[in-house]
Write a structure and sequence with these properties.
The complex is a heterodimer of chains A (342) and B (553). Chain A folds into two domains: 174 residues, NAD(P)-binding Rossmann-like Domain (Rossmann fold, 3-Layer(aba) Sandwich); 143 residues, N-(1-d-carboxylethyl)-l-norvaline Dehydrogenase, domain 2 (Orthogonal Bundle). Helices cover 51% and strands 11% of the residues of chain A. Chain A has an eight-stranded mixed beta sheet, with helices on both faces. In chain A, strand 2, helix 2 and strand 3 form a beta-alpha-beta unit. Chain A is globular, with a radius of gyration of 20 Å. Chain A starts with a strand and ends in a 20-residue tail after the last helix. With 553 residues, chain B is an alpha/beta fold. Chain B is 53% helix and 10% strand. In chain B, helix 9 links the parallel strand 3 and strand 4. In chain B, helix 2 packs antiparallel against helix 3 and helix 16 crosses helix 18. Chain B is globular. In chain B, 44% of the residues are buried. At the A-B interface, helix 5 of A face helix 15 of B.
Chain lengths: 342, 553
């Protein structure tokens, strides 16, 4: 009987399902695409991602959601945020209150600004919901390189079950009860990752990157804390951990969006070329709305939003950021001071 | 509680308290903690024979705890202590007296006065109209009526006044409900007459001065046990009366958790009707008996709050009498509004007693409480999470079912407008200020705007409003509000002087205004204010109105 159902045959869903199956636990991968499911069962390869890489022969795939998730003690949803609610609603037809459901999607719903775990709560009867988030470049995990992730839930038994069923020799699980903080950190960091891609595209050096990561963390933490997150979450794997990797790895999708913009490509062309969803594009809009609603200063995110959606030039965005008034570093001290300008 | 159930309840409560102390160390710690807290409490009391006897008995227990070393003796000691607490809590309940008491309840309110002033009461009694016309029970009463047959109810009301439990007891009796078991503070038992009625309305005694862990466990377990025995319970999830006047935002979850515990035990015991249903109730008054004392306490410096207030308006029968008279004189209603029922996990429940998810699909709630082996079992942390979620749903329900009254509407507008004019002052300075007034016409306009906004929100089912303010014009609303706010308290809250509206008691103004917090009306008013300012500038009219700034809650 299936122990773990992974929903979504994208790069991360495939990787997670493979990791679990390789560790000897019955795992079913659901893909909306019948062809993908069939190919995985027949050839043990995902025809869309990592075609060079054979998947665990024990991994089963299906395009029937109920078959995949009905009795699985643990369900991990790894579909793009734009399709998340729909999948959650379909799950709601058969999911039961003792099942644990995790979101592995790092995004926020447009307009409602809701987190993925909130969508799970709204669309199913499950209470034991949570999120899986951390510095997890799919390719590296698939190659068996050491990695770790955070499982966050308000329910301790949900965290314990997830750790038991998801851990693998090269894949560690850490628990966290700050679900809100972990989800926000995972979603918001994608906006900063786009800015980091811009630095790469402009050929800027490590000082600039370090500046971006540090101040980027400060502002997403500022918003997170305002919304009720634990500030310490942002110093953990799901916070600085994830931010570091997405801001430095050229494999990150959001990073590639920024790099493309810096090289003068249009957003449409970049999205077309990526083939997969870069959550940061949507999150930048949500982030701007949240920041305005809660009165939180997020200059970097605002710059990224203007780059993406208002056609601001890269040079101007950078100039705006560098010309801001001097201020203190501490996140809760929003105090700036005058310096004479030349 | 019926006599035969009472012995069962005591035994069961004591057994559970003992079971929660797993080993010898835990037993010793529980006993030592109780001795410490009880001795400390008693030492602070005025010397009396009963106090001295109690102290001696704790000294004796202390000696026994120290001299005996085996676990069995220590367990017996714990059992003895828990049994004493349980018996003290349970008190007496006689169903025949219940029936009799509820019938007399309207009279009892005035009967209270007999204790102090028989002549006064006799003189005024004929003028007292019936309580029945004043207490309006509305909302999902029919659903609750169905559910009481399908399972056990936990009625969870907001808490403003010590009159709440009497009003609730009466309202539910009048609607044909069986008595609600509830814990009432000792101060409600000090008057022998009221104490008699309280007991017989299903009240059990809660002594909030007792802070020992064992005592609190006895209370919590008693709530669960009585639910399991099929007694509908009443919990005030806010813990105490709202000091600020605002609707409860944070709840005390300890007692509320009895819902899940009882449900799990019912499943384990294979009971026929295992379900527990939570009924949110919002109480809305035009005036609040103890408003002056409560807001005073709220405004005391941090750390000086009194958790237990023994000497407030409720302890003054004449004050209660005057309060009731004013309510009658105003032709005012007390609303007791039942919200949609919830299960102990915070899910909605249908009239048929079935829990449903956000999309209306039936939920098998037994699944929430299975342990690893697939059997229903309690799990402390898990169940606390469920209770936390239930608490969040209750807070939402409290707001949706609040009824806006003329007094709160006017208080809100006047407070926000004044605050906007004096926004540089911190809250405390603002409340102490004696200058400052408003133009009647401005207040009238803003009050009508807010009334329109309230009605729009009511149409969405997010709040309710008193019929007597629906559709009314600004001047009417202001006059009705002034009348209510001027009739009962020692000082008027606000008054009219010519064409000016003048705050007289700003603390009370703040108190009544706070009832409408949590609906974002502040923002509406500030938008309105900004518009008014713009038009004032163009028309050259009154420029006094400024947009209100943030008000610290």
């Amino acid at each position: 009987m299936t122990k773990v159902a992974v929903l979504g045959g994208g790069s991360f869903g495939t990787t997670l399902a493979h990791t679990v199956a390789s560790a000897g636990r019955a795992c079913t991968l659901w893909s909306r695409d019948e062809e993908v499911a069939r190919k995985i069962n027949e050839t043990h390869r995902n025809p869309r991602y990592f075609q060079d890489r054979p998947l665990s022969p024990d991994l089963r795939a299906t395009s029937n959601l109920e078959e995949a998730a009905k009795d699985a003690p643990l369900v991990v949803v790894a579909v793009a945020s734009s399709g998340f609610r729909e999948v959650a609603r379909a799950l709601g037809d058969f999911v039961r209150g003792d099942q644990v459901i995790l979101s592995a999607t790092k995004g926020l719903e447009p307009r409602t600004h809701k987190r993925m775990s909130e969508l799970l709560r709204e669309e199913t009867c499950a209470k034991k919901v949570g999120a899986l988030s951390g510095p997890n470049i799919a390719r590296e995990i698939l190659d068996g390189q050491p990695a770790a992730t955070v499982v966050a839930s308000r329910f301790r038994d949900a965290i314990e079950l997830s750790a038991e069923l998801l851990h693998a020799p090269r894949f560690r699980i850490y628990g966290n009860d700050d679900l809100l903080g972990v989800e926000l950190a995972g979603a918001l960091k994608n906006v900063i990752a786009i800015a980091s891609g811009v630095l790469t595209g402009l050929g800027l050096g490590d000082n600039a990157r370090s500046l971006l990561i540090t101040r980027g963390l400060a502002e997403i933490q500022r918003l997170g804390v305002k919304l009720g997150a634990d500030p310490l979450t942002f110093s953990g794997l799901a916070g600085i951990g994830d931010l570091l990797v997405t801001c430095t790895s050229p494999l990150s999708r959001n990073h590639r969006v920024g790099a493309g913009l810096a090289k003068g490509e249009t957003l449409e062309a970049i999205v077309e070329r990526l083939g997969e969803v870069a959550e940061g594009i949507n999150t930048a809009r949500v982030c701007k709305e949240l920041a305005a609603e809660h009165g939180v200063a997020m200059p970097i995110a605002e710059g990224v939003y203007k780059l993406l959606h208002e056609g601001l030039a890269v040079r101007d965005a950078l100039e705006d950021l560098m010309q801001r008034r001097p201020r203190y570093e501490a996140i809760d001290l929003d105090y700036s001071f005058e310096v004479p300008r030349r | 509680m019926r006599a035969e159930d009472k012995e069962r309840a005591v035994t069961e409560v004591v057994a559970r308290v003992l079971a929660s102390a797993r080993d010898a160390k835990a037993v010793e710690a529980a006993v030592a903690d109780t001795i410490y807290h009880e001795r400390r409490r008693l030492e602070k009391e005025k010397p009396s024979r009963s106090r001295d006897a109690a102290l001696r008995s704790w000294d004796d227990r202390k000696r026994r705890l120290v001299s005996e070393s085996d676990e069995q003796t220590k367990r017996e000691l714990l059992s003895e202590i828990a049994t004493d607490f349980a018996r003290e809590v349970l008190g007496n309940f006689d169903p025949r007296v219940y029936h009799y008491s509820t019938k007399l309840l309207p009279l009892m309110l005035s009967g209270l006065l007999n204790a102090t002033s028989p002549t006064r009461i006799l003189k005024n009694l004929p003028e007292l109209p019936s309580v029945k016309d004043r207490v309006i029970v509305d909302g999902e009463i029919e659903v609750a009526r169905e559910l009481k047959e399908r399972g056990t109810l936990i009625v969870t009301p907001t808490h403003l006044s010590n009159l709440d439990s009497i009003v609730l007891g009466y309202g539910f009796y009048d609607q044909g409900f069986p008595p609600l078991t509830y814990g009432a503070g000792l101060n409600l038992f000090t008057n022998p007459l009221i104490s008699y009625f309280m007991h017989n309305l299903g009240a059990y005694k809660v002594d909030r001065r007792k802070t020992a862990r064992v005592y609190k466990d006895v209370l919590k377990e008693y709530a669960a046990v009585s639910l399991e025995l099929g007694y509908h319970n009443l919990f005030f999830p806010g813990g105490t009366r709202s000091r600020s006047g605002a609707i409860e935002q944070k709840l005390k979850l300890g007692l509320l958790g009895a819902g899940v515990r009882a449900y799990v035990n019912n499943l384990r015991g294979g009971r026929e009707k295992p379900n527990v249903y939570v009924i949110p109730v919002t109480l809305s008054y035009e005036l609040v008996l103890e408003a002056e004392t409560l807001i005073d306490d709220f405004l005391k410096e941090v750390g000086q709050h009194r958790y237990i207030i023994m000497d407030d308006e409720f302890a003054q029968p004449l004050r209660i009498y005057s309060f009731l008279n004013r309510i009658f004189e105003l032709d005012s209603r007390i609303y007791l509004t039942l919200g949609s029922p919830l299960d102990p996990f915070g899910n909605s429940v249908t009239r048929e007693g079935i829990s449903i998810d956000g999309r209306g699909r039936a939920i098998d709630t037994t699944r929430y409480v299975l342990d690893k082996s697939g059997k229903p079992a309690p799990e402390k942390l898990r169940d606390e999470e469920y209770t936390r979620e239930l608490g969040e749903k209750l807070v939402t329900a409290f707001h949706r079912n609040a009824t806006v009254m003329g007094s709160t509407l006017l208080a809100f507008v006047v407070f926000e407008m004044l605050r906007a004019n004096e926004k540089d002052a911190d809250l405390y300075r603002f409340l102490r200020a004696s200058e400052g007034d408003l133009a009647f016409a401005d207040v009238s306009r803003e009050t009508e705007k807010l009334r329109v906004r309230v009605e729009a929100l009511a149409a969405e089912g997010k709040i309710r409003l008193d019929d007597r303010i629906r559709g009314r014009g600004g001047d009417d609303l202001v006059l009705a509000g002034l009348r209510a706010l001027g009739i009962y308290h020692n000082r008027k809250v606000v008054e009219r002087r010519g064409d000016r509206i003048v705050p007289v008691d700003r603390n009370l103004l703040y108190y009544y205004r706070n009832r409408l917090l949590g609906f974002d009306f502040e923002k509406d008013l500030s938008r309105n204010g900004a518009e008014a300012k713009a038009s004032a500038l163009t028309e050259g009219a009154s420029a006094r109105l400024r947009s209100p700034g943030e008000v610290p809650a």
